[in-house]
Q: What sequence folds into this?
């Protein structure tokens, strides 16, 4: 009986990793659309969203069924609870990708100009946080998860710098307000991706150590 239960846990983990791959791909595509201003890539992001949402529901249902039927304890219980929370964060990463694609599509109506913000660099850092947090999940590595938490400050600093640079540009050149506002919102979307990666890392720590470090860095 427990063999079947642990096989189900493995299947749940595999489904979550598929979800992670889809969310990561959506972010990569949205940034590629920004970099190239290729609106056909935006369409790929929009088309992928229903599949991400469908998989989120499947994973949630499978996790809830395991909780109801198997009544797991200790680390198995924490694993399933962590999967439910990570699943929600990955769906929201997909939402951020859609938000970015919407902004890129709006920017397509204006001239492509150089803006004082390095969106690809910010995207690279926030995406690296997501990959690292998922690697920590795959390996059950709480120390690796901790390292993700430290990266969040860098993403926040880059987002703050983008805000000040683009706000200044709007004051100096009001005619560039549409492009600047869209870039500012994209930077904010990427900062949120970093927040979701932080949440995933905190869930890995909860699963492995049984410590709830949300809003409580002293628990590390």
A:
């Amino acid at each position: 009986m427990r063999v079947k239960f642990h096989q189900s846990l493995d299947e749940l983990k595999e489904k979550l990793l598929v979800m992670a791959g889809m969310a990561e791909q959506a972010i990569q595509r949205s940034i590629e659309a920004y970099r190239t201003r290729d609106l056909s890539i935006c369409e790929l992001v929009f088309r992928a969203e229903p599949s991400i949402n469908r998989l989120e529901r499947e994973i949630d249902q499978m996790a809830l069924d395991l909780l109801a039927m198997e009544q797991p304890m200790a680390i198995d219980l924490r694993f399933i609870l962590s999967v439910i929370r990570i699943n929600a964060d990955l769906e929201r990463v997909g939402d951020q990708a859609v938000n970015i694609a919407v902004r890129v599509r709006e920017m397509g109506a204006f001239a492509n100009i150089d803006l004082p913000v390095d969106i690809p660099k910010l995207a690279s850092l926030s995406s690296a946080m997501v990959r690292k947090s998922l690697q920590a999940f795959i390996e059950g590595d709480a120390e690796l998860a901790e390292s993700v938490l430290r990266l969040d400050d860098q993403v926040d600093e880059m987002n703050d710098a983008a805000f000040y640079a683009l706000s200044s540009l709007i004051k100096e050149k009001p005619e560039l307000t549409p492009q600047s506002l869209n870039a500012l919102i994209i930077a904010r979307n990427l900062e949120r991706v970093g927040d979701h990666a932080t949440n995933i890392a905190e869930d890995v720590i909860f699963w492995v150590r049984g410590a709830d470090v949300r809003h409580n860095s002293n628990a590390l």
